[in-house]
């Protein structure tokens, strides 16, 4: 039986990369006082209809929604920001009157055509800075995305920024854009023709070459922006220059979610083909109020983990997990006695693998050699009778028998030997 199309098992030899990423994210984000939050995978469908927008592809085509046994409309979350906003409201996090710096990592669900870097169950790492209208907050979250990518040895990417104004400014621009595009309606690609009345800003994002040619002479969003919006954006750009973070201004960049305003940004790479965006985000000052909360500004982003892994997996300084010690037993009495040895290993914090195959000692030793362990501990009837244990140093090809009472002392060598082998392998 196969996994469902668009889903993927994350196997043990891959999990170590995910754990490394999680630990790096924790390390980077903790420095700036961001705290992890975990929200439910299941949410009310209305949450995403109200936040993401009825005119978006996500709500119209991609959500996994169903009626549960309590006749409630339920959706598997397609993105993280709406859930964080809902949690901010329902848990009254606004009562602290402090900026909430939150981050998350977890699975999201969208019904899309699976391809490299795009799954129906996928994972996002995201951050949300809630409570500050200051352009410094925009710069802070962008800087943290930059820092995480650098920490993960991801260096080949470009940051694109745009100012998309507030709702009133965008509505003014939409009217101008629709007026310009209507005479060209039949020349637009099919998706853009549909978006002309539903979500015209998304036409700017079209990958169709003919549509992009038509857009070359279209009105610019910047022409509809107020002085306040331009000043906010200019400060974000100035802070990024002060941080030596390179960026390009792309005045056709719009995000696929309705809740964004003012700053919008994407981090892209040339290493992934058509799925080139690894991080997307922006400011969403009205979302929390729109969902029934207080008027609270916010800014954040999300990184697609599967896409990021395609880029960084082979560059991360990670060795596959191997036990330091392999345990081989011979005879029923040894299988009873080995648990006392295991207690010693656990006390010394040494990783081990106990052979469970009921096979000959010779076959156990062969598996020990293949395991990557440094030491094989052998316990048989002979050893039990003499209260000893045999140590076979697998890397050196040496074997010795010692008293069990001296095992803890002998095991101190393991840490030193493992350290030296790690340095040598790197």
From TrEMBL:
CDD domains to which the protein is assigned, alphabetical: HisRS-like_core (cd00773)
An individual GO BP term: histidyl-tRNA aminoacylation
PANTHER family linked: HISTIDINE--TRNA LIGASE, MITOCHONDRIAL-RELATED (PTHR43707:SF1), HISTIDYL-TRNA SYNTHETASE (PTHR43707)
EC number in record: 6.1.1.21
Cellular component, GO, one term: cytoplasm
HAMAP family from the UniProt entry: His_tRNA_synth
Ranges of residues in domain Aminoacyl-transfer RNA synthetases class-II family profile: 1-323
InterPro entries assigned: aa-tRNA-synth_II (IPR006195), aa-tRNA-synth_II/BPL/LPL (IPR045864), Anticodon-bd (IPR004154), Anticodon-bd_dom_sf (IPR036621), His-tRNA-ligase (IPR015807), HisRS-like_core (IPR041715), HisRS/HisZ (IPR004516)
Enzyme class: ligase
Positions that bind L-histidine: 79-81, 110, 124, 128, 255, 259-260
NCBIfam families: hisS
UniProt name for this protein: histidine--tRNA ligase
Family according to the record: Belongs to the class-II aminoacyl-tRNA synthetase family.
Gene expressing this chain: syh
Localization annotation: Cytoplasm
Subunit structure of this chain's protein: Homodimer.
Assigned keywords, A-Z: Aminoacyl-tRNA synthetase, ATP-binding, Cytoplasm, Ligase, Nucleotide-binding, Plastid, Protein biosynthesis
Record-level Gene Ontology MF annotations: ATP binding; histidine-tRNA ligase activity
Catalyzed chemical reaction(s): tRNA(His) + L-histidine + ATP = L-histidyl-tRNA(His) + AMP + diphosphate + H(+)
Main localisation: cytoplasm
